[in-house]
């Protein structure tokens, strides 16, 4: 984990409330893994807590970290005001990431809405030595603007939207069920709304396929200092920020946090 002052290179608005921020990071970028997250410091001293943002991409050759976020509250609104040349203090990378050290496997990555953000790095790492199938879903076309920033060359991709404005009208579960029925899949990895991930895990479980879920949205302090992100597992209570955010779906009993702090990656 690093504490690092980073220069903002870009902070582009890519939708009504969506932004893609790129920062220069000579240290943290070299140690980042798909599924990990960072705690970003706000300049407004009234907002004491840093804001957790999942890692979108890490370019180790150019020392660049990318964050894709949606403006929902005062914290992310402040991030949206950052301009090229501004300095942003980051803490990370934090947490346990996805399993990517695989070879000759057939992998399915399922992303929903803002949960698509961590899949850019995940897909890049997986497809070096594996076959990757990507299933993306969202409310509508704008929620999937992020797809244009992913490198999906060589990846079999399925897109679904609730309103049918992009791809197939429907949801990711119907597509996942079809893929699992037709192909021999080795692993399913997912990030998105909890209800979606629960359905993904259940669907993978019925097909006897190992599944990893990312609960990166359930975090407050990010450094194991509170109980805000505690979840119940077969191995006892676990903290998402320290023991996760990526978990084997089979060990999770209750994804709801023990204490609702009101602070998550959407603030």
From TrEMBL:
Protein's UniProt keywords contain Lyase: no
InterPro entries, A to Z: Cbr1-like_FAD-bd_dom, Cyt_c3_hydrogenase_gsu, Dihydroorotate_DH_ele_sf, Dihydroorotate_DH_Fe-S-bd, FAD-bd_FR_type, FNR_nucleotide-bd, PyrK_electron_transfer, Riboflavin_synthase-like_b-brl
Domain of life per record: Bacteria
Record-stated family: Belongs to the PyrK family.
Transmembrane segments: none
Xref: CDD domains: DHOD_e_trans (cd06218)
Entry keyword annotation includes Iron: yes
SUPFAM superfamilies: Ferredoxin reductase-like, C-terminal NADP-linked domain (SSF52343), Riboflavin synthase domain-like (SSF63380)
Domain FAD-binding FR-type per the UniProt entry, residue ranges: 1-100
Residues annotated as signal peptide: none
Record key words, sorted: 2Fe-2S, Electron transport, FAD, Flavoprotein, Iron, Iron-sulfur, Metal-binding, Transport
Designated name of the protein: Dihydroorotate dehydrogenase electron transfer subunit
Cofactor (UniProt): [2Fe-2S] cluster
Organism whose genome encodes this protein: Candidatus Cetobacterium colombiensis
């Amino acid at each position: 984990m690093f504490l690092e002052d980073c220069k903002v290179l870009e902070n582009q608005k890519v939708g009504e409330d969506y932004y893609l921020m790129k920062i220069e990071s000579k240290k943290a970028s070299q140690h980042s893994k798909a599924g990990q997250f960072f705690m970003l410091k706000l300049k407004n001293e009234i907002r004491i807590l840093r804001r957790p943002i999942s890692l979108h991409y890490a370019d180790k050759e150019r020392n660049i970290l990318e964050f894709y976020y949606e403006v929902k509250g005062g914290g992310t609104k402040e991030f949206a005001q950052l301009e090229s040349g501004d300095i942003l203090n980051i803490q990370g990378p934090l947490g346990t990431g996805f399993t990517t050290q695989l070879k000759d496997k057939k992998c399915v990555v399922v992303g929903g809405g803002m949960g698509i953000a961590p899949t850019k790095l995940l897909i890049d790492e997986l497809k070096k030595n594996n076959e990757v199938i990507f299933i993306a879903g969202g409310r509508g076309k704008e929620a999937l603007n992020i797809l244009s920033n992913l490198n999906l060359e060589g990846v079999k991709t399925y897109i679904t939207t609730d309103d049918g404005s992009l791809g197939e009208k429907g949801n990711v579960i119907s597509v996942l069920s079809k893929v699992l029925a037709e192909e021999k899949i080795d692993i399913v990895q997912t990030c998105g709304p909890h209800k979606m991930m629960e359905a993904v895990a259940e669907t993978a479980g019925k097909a006897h396929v190992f599944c990893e879920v990312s609960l990166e949205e359930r975090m407050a302090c990010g450094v194991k200092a509170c109980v805000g992100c505690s979840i119940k597992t077969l191995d006892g209570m676990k903290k998402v920020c320290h023991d996760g955010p990526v978990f084997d779906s089979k060990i999770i009993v209750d994804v709801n946090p023990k204490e609702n702090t009101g602070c998550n990656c959407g603030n």
